[in-house]
Amino acid sequence: MPSExxxxxAMVFVDGQNLYHAAREAFGYTYPxxxxxxxxxxxxxxxxxxxxxxxxxxxxxxxDDDARWHRFWxxxxxxxxxxxDRPHQR
Length: 90
Fold this sequence. Notes:
47% helix; alpha+beta
């Protein structure tokens, strides 16, 4: 049986809509004000894992269906992905 690795690496995948709705339900937030990278780093730190990469995905409503949320999620997703869609320093 293989021994457990001494250094555990993690790649975090975040579903933006699920995180938003979970935060809304748990804390009453009506605005997606979370920090994906800080959340990933905090969880990995608490578990003793080395964070290697963070990815953010979300559904974006069609412009014709909801222009306000389309613009918001398009911009929010782009901003988050500029921060997280690259390998992290080890």
